[in-house]
Amino acid sequence: MVFNAFLYSLIAGLLPSLLWLFFFIHEDSAHSKHRVIIFSCFLGGMVAVLIAVFAEKAIAEAVSDLTTRYTLWAAFEEIIKFLVVAAIALRSTANEDPVDAMIYCATVALGFAAVENTLFIMGPLSNGAVSQAIVTGNMRFIGATLVHVVSSSFVGFALGYAFYRGYLAKFIGVILGLAGAIALHAAFNLSIINASSTDTLKTFGWVWGAVVIIIILFEEIKAVHPQLA
């Protein structure tokens, strides 16, 4: 029973992320992407969740204020996702265009969200609460998963915009990108604490608005060239 619950939870957690991954990869169909790097980023995002679980448990034990705790959780998750991208992709030959950073950041975020969603779904599913597991999966798909993608993609946009610039510009881009990502992620976390159904839907509404903006930024980053940077 436990194994079946884990298997179904894993499928439910992975499938939405893989669908979004397919979409983001084809945002740059004009270039041949490095599949090994993309797979490594996705896998790296999945592994990062295991580190985040222990770190966030330590934060929860050390910080009692919910606002501070949720903000620190958001900060840790965004930083560790960026570190995975930096370790796997940013210094590789696969990072050859400004849009690549956005794709790799989104890929790591999707891998992270896949495992995180699996853990959230497995709880109610292992207790036989199938309907609750379905609702949880749907809510994660339209909410938390997209928050991970949007926030990480924002970091990728900042990196991509500074692609043809010097190290100082890239460093500033990382700082600004992470600051924006943490702010967005923390705002989402805080907005759903004890939120009513109506408030939750409103929150998901602005998240989907942010998704539209990120899609536009994907197109904008493709226009960055050495002479325009």
Account of the 3D structure:
This protein has helices at 2-25, 35-62, 66-90, 98-126, 130-161, 167-191, 197-221. It has one domain. The protein has 229 residues and is mainly α. The termini are far apart. α3 (66-90) packs antiparallel against α6 (167-191) and α5 (130-161) runs antiparallel to α6 (167-191).
| Terminal-residue CA separation | 56 Å
Specify the overall morphology: globular
Structural class: mainly alpha
Low-confidence stretches: 128-138
**Biggest sheet descriptor:** none
Estimate what percentage of residues fall within beta strands.
under 5%
Helix content: over 70%
What kind of assembly state do the chains in view correspond to?
A: single chain
**Average pLDDT score:** 80
Determine Rg (CA atoms, Å): 17 Å
Order of helices and strands: HHHHHHH
**Number of structural domains:** 1
The number of distinct β-strands equals 0
Helix count, DSSP H or I runs of 4 or more residues: 7
